[in-house]
Design goal:
binds 1,4-dihydronicotinamide adenine dinucleotide; 7-stranded mixed β-sheet; Arc Repressor Mutant, subunit A; alpha/beta; two-stranded antiparallel ribbon; about 45% helix
């Protein structure tokens, strides 16, 4: 838990990257790492890393660095990855199926148990063993299965109504891929993923590195 509740979003956005590198180090049986070495891996400065981790109590020891397994486990707890989330996905088209097909989300603790779509031709089909349900069953399914996370992969039209149903039935987190900003009540967290934005950043960086400005 954070020492105070005011951890900035910039810090929060760096934590998954630390966690990913620590997972790699753990896989390679590396036992300890200094903030300097973590800095070389992640591209953040050593003092940035120390400051970030100090928000949660600081896990390093002077002259020793960080114990990889311990820091990995602590960060996992901080990120809420020490448990499984019951998850559903709405919009079982190209993107929705690609996400449902990825096994890595389950091993990270996000268990997608059902897909929902409005296209009658898709209802009843399975993607990697996960059934596509009629969107009309969304409300009752959430209630009966204590769903905590909803992944929205529909077009932007209709996505707000879906977010409303999710929020009104107890879903606490929405992973939104629809290209629009959704409104959710207090107590519901929304995380938008817009691949285009990342692509546009790439294009900006390419354009400016050509001009020698970066
Ligand atoms: P798609 O057309 O293959 O799939 C959309 C699916 O949503 C269809 O199966 C359709 O029947 C279903 N659907 C539409 N309205 C619905 C509703 N109200 N309730 C339930 N199901 C509904 O489209 P694709 O390529 O999978 O893209 C889906 C959405 O994701 C689009 O809005 C697209 O712009 C967006 N997208 C976002 C990306 C991102 O990085 N955020 C990347 C790629 C796509």
């Amino acid at each position: 838990m954070a020492k105070n509740n005011k951890v900035s979003m910039a810090v929060v956005r760096r934590l998954p990257k630390y966690y990913r590198y620590l997972s790699d180090l753990k896989e390679k049986d590396i036992m300890r790492i200094s903030s300097g070495e973590l800095s070389k891996l992640t591209g953040f400065t050593a003092s940035q890393i120390r400051q970030d981790l100090n928000n949660f109590g600081g896990f390093g020891q002077q002259g020793y660095g960080y114990n990889v397994e311990d820091l990995h486990s602590q960060l996992g707890k901080i990120l809420g990855l020490d448990r499984t989330y019951e998850t559903i996905l709405i919009g079982a088209g190209n993107l929705g199926q690609a996400i449902a097909n990825y096994k890595g989300f389950l091993s990270a603790g996000f268990r997608v148990t059902a897909l929902f779509d409005k296209n009658p031709k898709m209802i009843g089909l399975n993607i990697r063993g996960i059934k596509i349900h009629d969107i009309d069953e969304l409300e009752s399914y959430i209630e009966a299965n204590n769903i905590e996370i909803g992944i929205i992969c529909t077009p932007k039209e209709g996505s707000q109504e879906i977010a409303d149903i999710l929020a009104n039935n107890g879903v606490k987190g929405i992973w939104n891929f629809a290209p629009t900003d959704l409104k959710v009540p207090e107590g519901v967290v929304i995380e938008n993923v817009h691949l285009n934005e990342s692509l546009f950043t790439l294009s900006f960086l390419m354009k400016n590195s050509d001009q020698g400005a970066l």
